[in-house]
Design brief:
Length: 792
Amino acid sequence: MSVFLYTVLIFIFYTKAENPLCQMMGNPKFPLLSKDGDVNIGAIFSVHSTEILTSFTYTQKPQLLSCSRLSAMSATMALMNGPEFTWRDRCTGQSPIHAIIGETESSATVILSRTTGPFKIPVISPSATCECLSNRKEYPSFFRTIASDYHQSRALAYIVKHFGWSWVGAVNTDNDYGNNGMTTFLNTAQEEGICVEYSVKFYRTEPEKLQKVVETIKKGTAKVIVAFLTSSEMYNLLEQLSIQNITGLQMIGVEGWITAKSLITPNSFHVLGGSLGFAVRKTAIEGFADYVIKSFWETAFPCTMTIGNSSQYSLSCGIYQDLLLLKNYNEDVPEQRYSTNVYKAVYAVAHSLHSLLKCKEDGCKKGLAIQPQQVVGALKKINFTLKLGDIVSFDSTGATVAQYEVVNWQKDANESIKFKPIGYYDASLPPHQRFVLHTENIIWAGGQLDRPRSVCSESCPPGSRKAAQKGRPVCCYDCIPCAEGEISNQTDSNNCKQCPGEYWSNAEKNKCVLKDVEFLSFTEIMGIVLVIFSLFGAVLTALMAILFYRKKDTPIIKANNSELSFLLLFSLILCFLCSLTFIGRPTEWSCMLRHTAFGITFVLCISCVLGKTIVVLMAFKAALPGNNIMKWFGPVQQRLSVFALTLIQVLICVLWLTMSPPFPHKNLKYYQEKIVLECNLGSNIGFWAVLGYIGLLAVLCFILAFLARKLPDNFNEAKFITFSMLIFCAVWITFIPAYVSPPGKFTVAVEIFAILASSFGLLFCIFVPKCYIILCKPEKNTKQHLMGKVLM
């Protein structure tokens, strides 16, 4: 931007009776261009960019600041008082200026607005964008035909977020413009999850700070820099970056420098090539280009070659010789983006005066005195459309709607640097339509075609989460794999999500899948082995039954109570087969069947064994002289006892199934990674009642068999029963701790093993010895052998 030079008029007011006098200190400063009229509009524009500071000796009046670049001198604050004040000695108390168009830079505009504020002179700036000027309490008469930096600063954060840059550097001009704009950007960046590695600032007259800024950029790891600078500071920064050959940085700029022609130098594209930024929207003013190369020169420089002799021409035009070389140059006219805002400002004042003077088609009212504060009120109400198609109105902060072009530094076919529009930001549109980018047309940093990456840490892939690094910004993090049972299905997840109850994380931890359902199936090896043993036991028992049936008339079969033996063999077949109900996917019917069938068949089995034990004891008691006990436990009583003992178990099972039957249950408690599909007992009391009743009969049978252990060796039925009951009880006692362990298919397998082991124990201990005699020792299958010492 520019440096503003003012000659401040200091007035000393003396109170003398009724005539206050004003005295000027210093030399008067007149406007460079002026013209009298009924209504006066002042304009202050800066045209310098670099200043030379003189030394202060404090022994003489300081010299004026001088500029190191050729230009015209800016208007001064004398504009407020008018030229008449210089030769009058009295204060009129009334400014001849009804409105001021200017200043250019925000800091200068702040000073101007604060100075004119007490006099209620409206100031309309075409380019001062500082958000600080939106404060209507401090600047009640300030207006601008450009948007506040609030919108541009937020849009900077949006463009950074749009391209996925989460790690950026920031540098700004150390004045009102840069500080306020950067503050808004930093706040918005934080809201959008963007981390700023560093935020540094400098002013054009601070070379030491500039060097520190360059060192910070050089040491930084961010590949994207948001530069909220004026063109002057950007020029200084560009020089230093070029000198130190710091390239490859993606610059994001603001309207203050992104389209500044002064930055186009032979080496600037190496540093600023591919820069992106927001520029004031470019609008062509009809006739402006012709005015610049014709009317302006004829008015501002009234000298031509037709004037008299050469000496007269030299006298009139010699001082303009260098400027006249540019008379026909108009290539920079299209990039004079702020001229449109000046155009709007002039028309805004004109429409306000038009309203105040009550102008109509036939003219305006005469004799109306217009005060500056009236112009302020009228400016707040204007709303009109220019020939350009733009609507001019001021919001509650005195600004116009935010409308920017997004431009990209590119080179054309002639290697000339161009500011190519690649999108726009228009706050007047609906939120989802405000920001549009055409990314396919972008040239990136250094003229590259590939978009640069600028992150503190690489993105965490799905299946992991971000873990902040201690003492560093939130964009610097480590990627931690999700725990078992947790997933993250997005990139850069802050947290891993717990999978629902019946789901578990897959190997990549990016998807919840159904947990493996565990139950003892017929298709797995363990299930197949158990099925084989179950069927083998049932078939073996059936073969023994057939053998016993064929040898039913032999002494050994008759001596062992053939009826109870066949019933016992039948119950053992059922015991072997009931183990099959424990294999396979649990269902409502299988859960009810497996425990009740097991309970009833085993009671039937133990009842038969108990009956045989009682028969053995009574048979030997009946062999004693005068003992007729067998008549009390004959075949009828034996059948009734088996039926009665079994009926009790049936009643227990009926009550269990009626009150709280077993049911299939998905057990999610013991294992996180799998579901145990099991049969819930429904009622633990019912289950332990069934098992306890079986145990009671087994203990009773064991005791009776133990009492008969000293019977003659040739008739060792009681010993075999004792041994079988010992095996039975041992198996089921060891089963209890295994059963109360964590559930799963192995617990079910243990239960099946207990059924099979106890069944095989009964089968082998009671029937295999008899089969051995029948098949291998038929000579012992005689009545004499069986009654060798004791008669039945």
